[in-house]
Design a protein that fits this description.
Elements lengths: L2 H13 L6 H9 L6 H14 L2 H10 L1 H9 L8 H18 L8 H20 L9 H13 L8 H11 L3 H12 L13 H4 L14 H23 L3 H12 L6 H8 L3 H20 L1
Helix pairs in contact: 3-4, 5-6, 5-7, 6-7, 8-10, 9-10, 12-15, 13-15, 14-15
């Protein structure tokens, strides 16, 4: 092992302890020795030819600062930087596992594709509850469209065609992705503090209950119809004043008080209550038979 590799190993031992904040982590990985081409080649061959895990570990550690640099480029998606770095580190480890030292390129040139691929997957998986990019063209648009837009306004037809030409996709796909990026996730249930207008689009207000049985719904509807017919028949058997009192007290949209009806018929409120009680008793009897 070379002198610089020994330095790298001692630095990695210091990194094994608790790091603390993200700033502390970034500071510590930035202080790790950068391998020369010869050192990198030696470690890569040890791992590739002899499966030397310590060599692989040193290769990973020496490139952690590069992962931080790449991850910071995705901060605009509102996701935790620490998580982006973690996903990038996974990509780095995959790259080290697959790196062939005989290719004649530096590990960093090979690893960049794996690091970005893992971060891309994480961003697409977590940026929205509903996935906005599934095809290759949509993924390309997702990560490039906001960079290509000159301002926050919607793209004109000319700008849409220019973006489509640069990315090698159809203008239709550009417009569709622009709409997806502009949309927001909709909570299934209205937020507790949402007013009536804000919560009106929540799916829970429109979807049927999962325990709703169609047969039960039909049965309930038929029963309600039968009750309505029975009530209409029973009301027809009451005298005019009793029927008017029951409708005014129970069936009208703007229900009236006992005193309102007493004033209308020129009797006491107690008399209206008696008429109401007698009428309801007759209705129950009639509907029960």
């Amino acid at each position: 092992m070379t002198g610089n590799a020994l330095v790298l190993k001692s630095q990695s031992l210091a990194l094994d302890g608790p790091v603390g904040s993200l700033d502390a982590y970034v500071e510590r990985v930035s202080s790790i020795h950068v391998l020369s081409r010869e050192e990198e080649l030696e470690l890569a061959k040890r791992f590739h030819d002899h499966e030397d895990l310590e060599a692989a570990r040193l290769l990973v550690l020496s490139h952690l600062r590069f992962v931080v640099h790449v991850a910071r480029g995705y901060m605009g998606y509102g996701l935790p930087v620490a998580d982006l770095i973690q996903e990038g580190n996974v990509g780095l480890m995959k790259a080290v596992k697959r790196f062939d030292p005989d290719m004649g390129v530096r590990l960093v040139s090979f690893a960049i594709h794996w690091i970005r691929a893992e971060i891309h997957e994480y961003v697409i998986r977590n940026w929205r509850l509903v996935r906005v990019a599934t095809t290759k063209a949509q993924r390309k648009l997702f990560f490039n469209l906001r960079r290509l837009k000159k301002n926050l306004a919607w793209l004109s037809d000319e700008e849409t065609n220019a973006v489509a030409g640069e990315l090698g996709v159809e203008p239709r796909e550009v417009r569709e992705m622009e709409q997806r990026l502009a949309a927001r996730d909709l909570s299934f249930d209205p937020a507790p503090d949402a007013d009536e207008e804000e919560g009106i689009g929540s799916p829970s207000l429109y979807l049927p209950s999962p325990d709703l049985d169609p047969a039960t719904a039909v049965e309930q509807e038929e029963w309600n119809g039968a009750v309505a017919d029975s009530l209409t028949t029973a009301l027809g058997k009451l005298d005019v004043r009793s029927r008017a009192v029951v409708k005014a007290r129970w069936l009208a949209d703007d229900k009236r008080t006992l005193q309102d009806l007493a004033d209308e018929y020129g009797v006491s409120a107690e008399r209206i209550r008696q008429i109401e009680a007698t009428a309801i008793s007759k209705l129950r009897t009639a509907m029960a038979t």
